[in-house]
Specification:
This protein has one domain: TIM Barrel, CATH 3.20.20. It is built from 17 helices and eight strands. It has helices at about 10-20, 35-45, 55-60, 65-75, 80-100, 110-115, 120-140, 155-165, 190-195, 210-220, 235-245, 255-260, 270-275, 290, 295-305, 310-320, 330-345, and strands at about 20-25, 100-110, 140-150, 175, 200-205, 225-230, 250, 280-285. It is α/β, with parallel strands linked by helices and about 350 residues long. Helix 5 packs parallel to helix 7, helix 8 (about 155-165) runs parallel beside helix 9 (about 190-195) and helix 16 packs antiparallel against helix 17 (about 330-345). An eight-stranded parallel sheet has the order 1-2-3-4-5-6-7-8. Helix 11 links the parallel strand 6 and strand 7 (about 250). Bound molecules: hypoxanthine and zinc ion (ZN). Zinc ion (ZN) binds near residues 25, 27, 205 and 228.
């Protein structure tokens, strides 16, 4: 690992912004800003629950994950056409590129939208076209991870996977999202085994609000390769040792954890302790339109709150490429760009 020269706290935000990074935990529906939501509502003649952007934004106060999921779900009602999915994804990718995200692995779900009468191909084709265009327009790579909704049944997850199979080549993997408590990973053992047979990469939300046991079963029953959130792992030293030894990445989302009251303050966040324990942690935005910040705001606010250093910044960006589902040639190129950015920064 590069030994990074010390950088003063006032220069750190510039470095955090400039450094190339991968974003691995972003729900595209959670990137839908109120302005675009209202524009799409108007385009599709969908009645809005709030009279204007300001009153909608002021409703974004949450006590827990479920509180958020209810509002988040209501926001997806404006999405009706392939172009809507394209526009939402294009807006995210443009915003991410401005934060020097050079690679994004984007979560989406189809069950929300098929539940509104849309077909799976409208969703996936719109998202995929935006990912393809981002290569030429922003010089960034992007891929798609289909998340099953864990508050629904495994049979419904199977149906969702079946509907996505004609578009298999547009997906890099599958994940598990939505209400965690009461819906342990093992509920989805068979559908993850099927996805694995199909050659899809596997990730899953675990240990956001739920116990360390959910992280164990995501690893040992679902055989996921990354854990999304995973912040509850610190309660279980044996689990921490396992995550470090097997280099299982955690996609951590500090501002999400703050907004959903997983931690009372950013200063109480355990990201620094994870890095100290040798965990392959990364920083991500989760649902940036709802949680008050894109990836750089997650970096800068968390670094300020925890007193993290330029060495931590290099480690986190390096981790993001290590944890990415990209080929090793591209990984090396991104890591070389990262190292060059640090070596030339002064
Ligand atoms: N957790 C679970 N499901 C989600 C989240 C999250 O943070 N964001 C969008 N769906
Ligand atoms: Zn998430």
């Amino acid at each position: 690992m590069l030994k990074v020269k010390p950088i003063s706290a006032d220069r750190l935000p510039d470095l955090l912004r400039l450094m190339p990074k991968a974003e691995l935990h972003i729900h595209i529906e959670g990137s839908l800003e109120p302005e675009l939501m209202f524009a799409l509502g108007q385009r599709n003649s969908v009645a809005m629950a709030y009279p204007d952007v300001e009153s909608l934004r002021s409703a974004y106060v949450f006590d827990n994950l479920q509180d958020f999921l209810d509002i988040y779900h209501a926001g997806t009602l404006v999405l009706r056409t392939e172009q809507d999915f394209y526009d939402m994804t294009h807006a995210y990718l443009a915003r991410a590129a401005a934060d020097n995200v050079v690679h994004a692995e984007i979560f989406f779900d189809t069950q929300t939208h098929t539940g509104h009468g849309l077909s799976t191909d409208i969703v996936i084709n719109g998202l995929h076209r935006a990912c393809v265009d981002a290569r030429a327009e922003f010089g960034m790579s992007a891929s798609l991870i289909l998340c099953f909704l864990r508050h629904l049944s495994e049979d419904e997850a199977f149906e969702c996977l079946e509907q996505a199979l004609p578009l298999r080549d547009k997906l890099v993997g599958v994940g598990l999202a939505s209400s965690e408590m009461g819906h342990p990973p093992e509920k989805f053992a068979r559908v993850f085994a099927r996805a694995r047979e199909l050659g899809l990469r596997l990730v899953g939300h675990a240990g956001e609000e739920g116990p360390p046991a959910y992280i164990w079963s995501a690893l040992d029953v679902l055989k996921v390769e990354r854990i999304d959130h995973g912040v509850q792992a610190l309660k279980d030293p044996a689990l921490m040792a396992r995550l470090a030894k097997d280099r299982i990445p955690l996609t951590v989302c500090p501002l999400s954890n703050l907004k959903l009251r997983v931690f009372p303050t950013l200063a109480a966040h355990n990201l620094g302790r994870m890095l100290d324990a040798g965990i392959v942690a990364t920083v991500n935005s989760d649902d940036p339109a709802y949680f008050g910040g894109y990836i750089n705001q997650n970096f800068t606010q968390t670094f300020a709150a925890l007193g993290l250093t330029a060495q931590h910044a290099y480690q986190l960006a390096h981790n993001s490429f290590e944890a990415s589902f990209i080929d090793d040639t591209l990984r090396r190129q991104y890591v070389d760009r990262l190292t060059a950015t640090f070596e030339s920064f002064n």
